[in-house]
Specification:
- The protein contains one helix and 29 strands.
- By secondary structure, it is mainly beta.
């Protein structure tokens, strides 16, 4: 009898298990920091469903407007931080917005700040090992007017921890602090110096700082290569998977490998370059294991380079968009299998996703990421009635996947 009861109990448990709904893929979202084309309407954060097995894949979930007008939504953090508090700059207004995305389908504005003391117009944001945020500020006020900005360490809620100036005797007029690479293993930070203002002088300088106390250690120029001008408009430092090697891109489509970063005489050498268009610049790169992905507008493409030998990068993959599409911003999904792409030209009001193979480095367009009835892949932001109100076209810039 005992055995029979056990069998009956096991059978009942099996029936209960069969009645349970099957496990589903956790929900994934894409966040688009978006400017309104109508200056009377609010800029906003758009949330897109990118859950792989969802029937709503590529559909709008909601939007969150921000205060003010003409903020000029620009850079967000390059990946979703663990605490879900995403920093995003409105470069035109100089305001930074902190989005609470701990509930991705119900985003809220957790904070906002502008100038920090004398420092103005923050540009890029990076997480430090202690969980704080390092912000690059383009400029600072002094008695002579505007000079090169600096670094500001903030808590995740936007409280100032410490600041450090990038200005030094002999700094060229075009030097502004642009972006950064954090190298904890070497106690170093690398920053670039391009001015965001139109028609500004081109800077070819890099700066090296000590991470532990934000002391500015070195400032030096990038050399040019065979084409001339590859070192102009320093852009994005990226730390490789070994945690010690740094590649630096320029908007002039050069790629530089840093040498002796921890020494008293750091330098950088050109290891790759791409063709450049007059009005469109190579822009945001990401590191995915042994691969370096970067936008190359002259090719209307995102290119994948094998950097297993960083002194000799070689192309292994490319996804090419339409002839009028100029990709600019890219960011990786946490599993490194998808890349979000925003840009200019015909991409101004559209976001696309590329599939990435982290083993081979190959790229291809995600054809499934498209709206119902659309003739091309992608999600458009110029034909919508927005949940927060209004119908103005949206121009996405910074974009990041949920964790």
């Amino acid at each position: 009898m005992t055995t029979l009861r056990r069998l009956l109990a096991l059978g009942a448990l099996a029936l209960v298990a069969c009645d349970r709904p099957p496990a589903t893929t956790p929900a994934d979202y894409l966040f688009l920091w978006t400017a309104s084309a109508d200056s009377t309407q609010a800029d906003f954060l758009a949330v897109i469903d990118v859950t792989e097995d969802s029937v709503r894949y590529g559909s709008l979930v909601t939007t969150l407007p921000v205060p003010g007008r003409r903020n000029g939504p620009h850079h967000t953090e390059h990946e979703m931080p663990a605490d879900g508090l995403l920093f995003a700059n409105g470069f035109a207004s100089g305001e930074t917005f902190i989005f609470d995305l701990t509930q991705p389908a119900a985003p809220r504005l957790a904070g906002e700040f502008g100038d920090v003391g004398t420092y103005t117009h923050p540009h890029s944001f990076f997480r430090l090992p202690n969980g704080h945020v390092l912000a690059t500020f383009q400029m600072q006020h002094d008695s002579s007017g505007m000079v090169a900005g600096g670094l500001v360490e903030l808590t995740p809620t936007g409280q100032v921890v410490r600041t450090a100036s990038a200005d030094f005797a002999g700094a060229d007029a075009g030097m502004r602090v642009y972006s950064a690479g954090i190298v904890p293993a070497l106690d170093r930070i690398v920053t670039t110096t391009t001015d965001m203002m139109a028609d500004s002088p081109a800077s070819r300088l890099l700066q090296v700082w000590r991470l532990s106390d934000l002391t500015l250690l070195h400032t030096f120029p990038l050399p040019d290569g065979p084409a001339g001008g590859e070192g102009l408009y320093t852009a994005e430092p990226r730390v490789l998977a070994d945690g010690r090697t740094v590649l630096v891109s320029t908007f002039s489509c050069g790629l530089y490998l840093m040498d002796g970063l921890e020494s008293d005489a750091p330098s950088a050498r050109l290891v790759a370059s791409f063709p450049r268009m007059d009005d469109e610049y190579c822009a945001i790169p990401v590191i995915a294991g042994d691969y370096y992905l970067v936008t190359v507008p002259a090719w209307n493409a995102v290119v994948s380079l094998d950097i297993s030998d960083p002194s000799a990068p070689r192309e292994v993959g490319r996804v090419t968009f339409g002839a009028g599409d100029f990709p600019h911003w890219i960011a990786l999904a946490p599993d490194q299998r998808r890349v979000v792409v925003t840009g200019y030209g015909a991409m101004e009001h559209r976001v696309a996703i590329a599939r990435f193979d982290p083993v081979t480095g190959q790229l291809k367009l995600d054809e499934r990421f498209r709206e119902e009835g659309a003739s091309e892949p992608g999600f458009r932001l110029d034909d919508k009635q927005w949940p927060h109100g209004g119908t103005a076209a949206g121009t996405p810039h910074g974009a990041v996947f949920s964790r």
